[in-house]
């Protein structure tokens, strides 16, 4: 009678991968919150509150910090998980954010508004994706 062959369980994510994923989760939640404030603040401005426009401008500038941090951590996570698409989105977000700030200061709303919608959608996707099952594989 032959002994049953023992097979190793499938390897799960490494401790480094999980730690990076948790940092990425926290950064993307903060980033998505700031991005979601942008349409709310500009909507309040259009409703007649001038300080909301100032908040929109300040939050837009402040967004460079979490977007850059998220991009750096996202690149590490993309390398650890071998997800090229994640790395590209993480690189694209700061570039588009810088363009959005510049376009906003020139008041070219025909580009600023649709680009803002795209940025909010990307930020929300980045905040949701790390909580999915595929992110931990």
Structural account:
- It contains 5 helices and no strands.
- It is mainly α and 137 residues long.
- It has one domain.
- The longest helix is centred in the first third of the chain and has 32 residues, at 15-46.
- The protein is elongated.
- It is 77% helix and 0% strand.
* Major sheet characteristics: none
Low-confidence segments: none
Secondary-structure content class: mainly alpha
Helix-strand string: HHHHH
Number of helices: 5
Give the end-to-end Cα distance, rounded to a whole number of Å.
37 Å
**Overall tally of domains:** 1
Give the secondary structure arrangement, pairings included:
Elements: H1 15-46, H2 50-62, H3 64-81, H4 84-106, H5 109-128
Helix pairs in contact: 1-2, 1-3, 1-5, 3-4, 4-5
Describe the structure using short key phrases.
single chain, 137 residues, mainly alpha, 5 helices, elongated
Summarize the structure.
With 137 residues, this protein is mainly alpha-helical.
């Amino acid at each position: 009678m032959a002994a049953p062959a023992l097979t190793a369980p499938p390897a799960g994510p490494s401790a480094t991968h999980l730690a990076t994923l948790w940092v990425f989760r926290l950064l993307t939640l903060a980033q998505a919150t700031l991005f979601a404030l942008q349409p709310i603040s500009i909507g309040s401005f259009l409703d007649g509150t001038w300080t909301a426009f100032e908040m929109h401008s300040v939050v837009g500038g402040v967004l460079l910090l979490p977007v850059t941090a998220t991009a750096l951590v996202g690149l590490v996570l993309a390398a650890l998980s071998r997800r090229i698409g994640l790395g590209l989105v993480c690189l694209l977000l700061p570039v588009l954010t810088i363009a959005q700030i510049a376009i906003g200061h020139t008041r070219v709303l025909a580009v600023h508004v649709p680009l803002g919608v795209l940025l909010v959608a990307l930020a929300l996707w980045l905040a949701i994706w790390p909580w999915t099952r595929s992110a931990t594989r």
